[in-house]
């Protein structure tokens, strides 16, 4: 509500003393000023209905914006609490993330394949030099997630050095063969809450964004 409009009607500081020099007024103050304005208006020039409704709409809009901001602040606080609770529940859990890298720690490694259709599945374990060290034939599998395990040995049965290895997976259906997405397993050991997004840290996969997690095991 425009306080200067009241002053032009002769209300002056006596009518607006409760508001002082502040530009913002509360609901009760607004109603008091509105009644005072109606009582002191010129009988020969009464307030137009449009002016009255415009002032009501202006106050209603300002009040609505204030209430909306309060609601958004409460929602943000609630989401922050939910994020912390989600993070606490993920520590110690295994997650599946799209990655064609397996970490062999001396005991082999495991992962999953995402089959869009049934087919005969084959996996090649490849070292950093691009050499295929081990080939695993998983046989014919149905569509869906297919788990696999690698014991850390090469095709000759020798133990391979610990480290990171790439996985190339494919499925053959009749005469056609197509590559398969590989999902690596990582165990969450800590969670970063400092940023706007929830980031997970795993020993084998490093930092992983929560949005990149395909499944929580």
From TrEMBL:
InterPro entries the UniProt entry points to: FlgD, FlgD/Vpr_Ig-like, FLgD_Tudor
FlgD/Vpr Ig-like domain location: 100-174
Record keywords, A-Z: Bacterial flagellum biogenesis, Cell projection, Cilium, Flagellum
Pfam families documented for this protein: FlgD, FlgD_ig, FLgD_tudor
Entry coiled-coil feature ranges: none
Recorded superkingdom: Bacteria
FlgD Tudor-like domain span: 83-214
Cited function: Required for flagellar hook formation. May act as a scaffolding protein.
Stated family: Belongs to the FlgD family.
Protein name: Basal-body rod modification protein FlgD
Native species: Spectribacter hydrogenoxidans
């Amino acid at each position: 509500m425009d306080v200067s409009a009241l002053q032009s009607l002769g209300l002056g500081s006596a009518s607006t003393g409760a508001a002082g020099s502040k530009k913002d007024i509360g609901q009760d103050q607004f109603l008091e000023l509105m009644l005072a304005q109606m009582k002191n208006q010129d009988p020969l020039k009464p307030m137009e209905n449009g002016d009255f409704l415009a002032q009501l709409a202006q106050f209603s809009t300002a009040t609505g914006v204030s209430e909306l901001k309060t609601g958004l602040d409460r929602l943000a606080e609630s989401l922050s609490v939910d994020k912390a609770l989600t993070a606490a529940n993920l520590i110690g859990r295994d997650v599946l993330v799209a990655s064609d890298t397996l970490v062999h720690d001396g005991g082999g490694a495991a992962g999953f394949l995402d089959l869009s259709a049934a087919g005969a599945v084959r996996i090649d374990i490849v070292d950093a030099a691009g050499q295929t060290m081990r080939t695993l034939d998983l046989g014919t599998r149905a569509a869906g997630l297919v788990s696999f395990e690698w014991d850390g040995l090469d095709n000759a049965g020798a133990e391979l050095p610990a480290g990171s290895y790439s996985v190339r997976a494919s499925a053959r259906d009749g005469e056609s063969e197509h590559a398969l997405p590989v999902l690596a397993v990582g165990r969450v050991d800590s969670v970063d809450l400092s940023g706007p997004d929830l980031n997970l840290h795993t020993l084998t996969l490093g930092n992983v964004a929560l949005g990149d997690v395909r499944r929580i095991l």
